[in-house]
Structure formats: structure tokens, C-alpha cells
Design a protein that fits this description.
By secondary structure, this protein is an alpha+beta fold. It has four domains: 2-51; 90-180, PDZ domain (Pdz3 Domain); 184-320 and 332-407, 2-enoyl-CoA Hydratase, Chain A, domain 1, CATH 3.90.226.10; 414-524, no CATH class. The chain has helices at 2-27, 32-46, 53-66, 77-88, 115-119, 142-149, 206-219, 237-245, 291-301, 354-358, 360-366, 414-421, 424-443, 447-453, 458-470, 478-500, 503-510, 515-525; strands at residues 73-75, 90-93, 96-101, 104-110, 126-130, 133-134, 156-162, 170-175, 177-180, 184-191, 194-199, 224-228, 253-258, 265-268, 280-284, 306-309, 317-323, 329-338, 383-385, 392-394, 403-404. The termini are far apart.
């Protein structure tokens, strides 16, 4: 019997080796692809333990890409879907903004015109069941709840809803639909004649949203614009080009790309932009990256406006998506971005050292670059000049602002940061608005009245601090507690505004204490 087993094993090995020999004939002795395929076949067929072939291949792809630049990457089908959703401009679901409070889904706002609003779901409702399955009080992960709520357009879902003041659980049948995902966070008049637009990312609908925002603000008397790109991690190149086109005169160079196997490609303004006159100030920080840096660099290099804030992230590598048969994707770097003056946006990196690259912002903080302009040094070889006024600008990675605003590391105390990280602030806001929504809406029908006269109740903050203490989260001393109070009140007031109105009202409050925004206002109004 043992001889038979040995014979069978030998035959299997010979078959595998024979297949490998055949592969040599197909691919040629010098083919590197042949080496990869032989290695994969050998591991699958001969390795001592069973292996997951799918994972084996994925690990091999990741291993190759990890030795390249920090932005070439592999994504599974699930990761591709999650990555594309914010940029695609929509997803399919029931259409509510929500948060979790006490293990229950609390509706912050139904999406205007969305499927939930159409059937009568309102802010403050608690969704406790989905298709007769309880989702409240059962410790169901947020991801699982979202999976149950989302689904293909046209499918129906039964929701059990608890509403304040009504004893019975309400039932709503919601027909799922496409739900818009907005990439513009805020649009409002920040000062007389000065509009403010904050863009969160550059997606498929960003240009359309931007044009709508500009037209809305122009109707309100806007002549000048503050464009806030703080924290904007980028997105689609074409979206950035389209945004810059709205600001620049005809034929102005916006950006160009070039690579080893990719010829130089230029993107220029068409001359049909809405805002070719008036002042522009662009706000940036160390997390402004990629497509957001393209817009910033174009405005600066063409002397169309000034840049305020801190040196941007420095992502100037162009990725081409390569779709794989199972829905996964490789994003492979094929070129560099260059600003109109010839600056390469990409900051230096060492191949295969992604961890060091990821620590760059922290290293900037340690070296004092984020807090002191004198800590920033550029070599003369990196010097470039803007195209109209011939002002000096520097390459070497990222966009250095015209007016530096240091990071104030004392703005938020450690106690404040811990309260935020452990959800005490958001939960305090949710409970307060849930209990007082109708009274607040009755008292403040006008946002300007709210902005000028509303203060978040001190007793609610005291209750939050007491609740945190029960979980061993306490300020270091009375001085830290006192120092935390102004920002806590401001943040909670802004969160209440968001829940009663929208994100524009949130930023209208929070921006009044932002040093970068205040400097932007100073530059544009002088």
C-alpha cells in the first residue's frame, strides 16, 4: 500500500514538473513571467501544506508593488468598491445621514429628495429593525448595519422606526435609489462680497457641484472667493483640471504630466470659466494632496491668486488603474505631475520604504516645519518663478504657500482630543439635539440669529465631563479643563448647527476660529 502511495505521489510531481517544462517552451528561457508562473505552480502543487492560491497571487502582486513608489497599489474587489464610492458621486441605499448612539442608529438628516425622506422618515428617528431583523441593542457592527440598509436601486426594505413622542414602532417601506455623495463640504458667504467653498475631494461630480456653488454665491453678491482645500486628499485629475478652468483665462497651462513611457500631456484652460475676475485665496495644509495640489499650483504659478496655510503633502505621481478579471485593481504609477512653472509636485521618497514616506508629516512636525516658517529650507536648485509676476516659488515636493500659517499645537488640549477620540463629544451633541430639536428649531428659524446668539449649555458640558470621569478620563488639572472649554463650546455649537441645518453652517461657525481661514479673509479683504 505504501508503495502505491509513493508511486502516486511521484507521478503527481512528475506531472507538475512536466507542466513546468511545457511552460518553458511557451514563454522562452529568458522570460521573467515564466519564473513567476513556475514558482506559483510549484507552491500550489508541491508545498508541504495547503495554500490559498488567491491569497498567494495577491501577496505576489503586493510584493512587487511594494518595491516601487508609495502610491502604486493593489486593491481587492471589496476595496475597489469602497474606494470608488466617494469619487463616483453616488451609491445605492435608503438615503440618510446617521450616527450610532447607545447602540442605536439615529437619523441625523434624511437626504433631501431621497427615498427615506419621500416615505416620511425625519431627523431624530431611530431605525431599530431592517426587514424584521433587530439592529438596535444587539451590538451589530456599523458595517453590517450599512450592508443591510444598502442594496441595488429599486429593491425594497422594511424599516422599523422609533420616533420621539410616539409609543408604537413605525413601519416604513423604502425603495432604495441612487444617493448622491457630495464632494463639496460647504458653500456660504463668509464676508460681504466674499464667498467660501470647501472641497472635500475631487470626484466625478465635483465640477458640477463647484459650478452650482459659484452661481449660488454670485447671486448673493460674491466678487472674490476663498477656496478651502485643507485636508483634501485629491481624487480625479480631470476634476482638478475642470475646477482650475473655472478660474483661469484661456490657454493658461493648468498642469502637465510626463513619464518614462508616457509622453508629455498638457492641460490648459479653455477660457469659458465662471470666475475669471475677482480675487482668489486658496487655503491648504499638510494634508492637501494630489488633485488639490494641481489646482493650488495652477492658481499660484499663473498669479491668479495667493495661497495661505502650510506646505502641502507632495503627491505628484499619476496612477493608471488596471482592472483585473475578478474586479480587483492595480493602480500603477506611470507619470509625474508638474505645475505650470515646471515644479514637480511629488516629494522625495525611497522605493520600498512606504513606512518612512507615511511618517513624513510627523517628521515635519518634529523638525519644526509645521510651526515655524524659518525651519523650512529650499535649495537654490529648486527655485522657480511664477509666470506673470515672476515671484519666486520652490519645487521639491508639495506647494509652499505664499503666506505661512503655523500649526497651533496648543489649540486642542489632550483632554479635548481624548474626549473626541472616545466619542464623548459627538454623543453629547446627539443626545442634546435629539432631546431639544423641536425647541431649537422653533427658537432659531434663522441661522444668523443662531450664530450670533446661541451658546451650547454649560450644564451639558459639565455632564459630559462627569460621564468621562466615570470612565477614568479626566483633565490633568483645572487649568487644562478651563483651557479646553472655549473649543469644546465652539465644536458643540457647530455640531448643533450641522444637525439643524447642514455642513455649510457647521463650517460657518468653526471657521471663525481657524487661523488659516482668518488669514485668508485678511488677504482677500485687504
Amino acid at each position: 500500500m505504501n508503495k502505491i502511495k509513493t508511486f502516486c505521489l511521484a507521478m503527481m510531481m512528475m506531472t507538475s514538473i512536466s507542466a513546468m517544462a511545457q511552460m518553458r517552451l511557451n514563454f522562452g528561457d529568458d522570460s521573467q513571467l515564466r519564473k513567476l508562473q513556475i514558482a506559483e505552480m510549484a507552491i500550489k502543487s508541491l508545498y508541504v501544506d495547503s495554500v490559498d492560491e488567491k491569497k498567494l497571487v495577491e501577496d505576489g502582486i503586493r510584493g512587487m508593488l511594494e518595491k516601487l513608489d508609495p502610491h502604486s497599489s493593489y486593491s481587492t474587489p471589496k476595496e475597489v468598491k469602497a474606494m470608488n464610492e466617494p469619487l463616483a458621486g453616488n451609491f445605492e441605499g435608503i438615503g440618510v445621514q446617521f450616527n450610532m448612539i447607545d447602540d442605536t442608529l439615529l437619523v441625523i438628516q434624511p437626504v433631501t429628495g431621497g427615498p427615506s425622506e419621500k416615505v416620511g422618515i425625519v431627523a431624530g428617528d431611530r431605525i431599530v429593525s431592517v426587514n424584521d431583523t433587530a439592529i438596535a441593542g444587539v451590538k451589530m457592527p456599523k458595517e453590517e448595519i450599512m450592508r443591510r440598509l444598502r442594496g441595488p436601486k429599486g429593491t425594497k426594505v422594511m424599516l422599523g422606526v422609533v420616533r420621539r413622542g410616539i409609543s408604537d414602532t413605525l413601519a416604513f417601506k423604502v425603495t432604495r435609489d441612487k444617493i448622491p455623495v457630495n464632494s463639496i463640504d460647504a458653500t456660504y458667504m463668509i464676508r460681504p462680497n466674499v464667498g467660501y467653498i470647501r472641497i472635500g475631494n475631487f470626484g466625478a461630480t465635483t465640477h458640477r457641484e463647484f459650478v452650482e456653488s459659484l452661481m449660488k454665491l454670485e447671486k448673493q453678491g460674491m466678487r472674490d472667493l476663498i477656496l478651502d482645500l485643507e485636508g483634501n486628499g485629491g481624487g480625479y485629475l480631470q476634476a482638478a483640471v475642470d475646477i482650475a478652468n473655472e478660474l483661469l483665462p484661456k490657454n493658461d497651462l493648468i498642469v502637465y504630466t510626463t513619464g518614462r513611457r508616457v509622453p508629455r500631456m498638457e492641460y490648459r484652460a479653455k477660457g469659458n470659466g465662471i470666475l475669471q475676475d475677482g480675487k482668489i485665496v486658496v487655503l491648504v495644509d499638510e494634508y492637501t494632496a494630489s488633485a488639490a495640489e494641481i489646482v493650488t499650483g495652477a492658481v499660484q504659478d499663473q498669479d491668479r491668486g495667493v495661497v495661505v496655510g502650510r506646505r502641502t503633502f507632495g503627491k505628484g505621481l499619476v496612477q493608471r488603474p488596471i482592472d483585473l478579471p475578478d474586479g480587483s485593481m492595480i493602480r500603477l504609477t506611470i507619470a509625474h505631475y508638474y505645475t505650470p512653472s515646471g515644479r514637480c509636485i511629488q516629494k522625495p521618497y525611497e522605493k520600498g520604504k512606504a513606512e518612512d514616506y507615511a511618517m513624513d508629516v510627523l517628521n515635519r512636525l518634529k523638525h519644526g516645519e509645521l510651526t515655524n516658517a524659518d525651519s523650512i529650507h529650499f535649495a537654490d536648485s529648486l527655485k522657480c518663478y511664477t509666470l506673470r509676476k515672476h515671484r519666486t516659488v520652490y519645487g521639491g515636493g508639495g506647494i509652499m504657500p505664499d503666506h505661512f500659517v503655523p500649526l497651533d499645537t496648543t489649540t486642542y488640549t489632550n483632554f479635548h482630543r481624548q474626549l473626541s477620540a472616545r466619542s464623548f463629544i459627538i454623543n453629547t451633541n446627539l443626545r442634546y439635539v435629539d432631546a431639544n430639536r423641536k425647541a431649537l428649531q422653533k427658537r432659531f428659524s434663522d441661522f444668523n440669529d443662531f450664530k450670533q446668539n446661541y451658546e451650547f449649555p454649560q450644564e451639558e458640558i459639565d455632564r459630559m465631563v462627569a460621564d468621562a470621569a466615570k470612565q477614568n478620563l479626566k483633565p490633568k488639572d483645572d487649568e487644562e479643563l478651563e483651557k479646553s472649554m472655549p473649543r469644546l463650546k465652539l465644536q458643540l455649537k457647530a455640531l448643533v448647527a450641522r444637525d439643524l441645518w447642514d455642513m455649510s453652517e457647521y463650517f460657518a461657525i468653526i471657521n471663525e476660529e481657524s487661523e488659516i481661514v482668518k488669514k485668508g479673509i485678511e488677504e482677500i479683504t485687504n
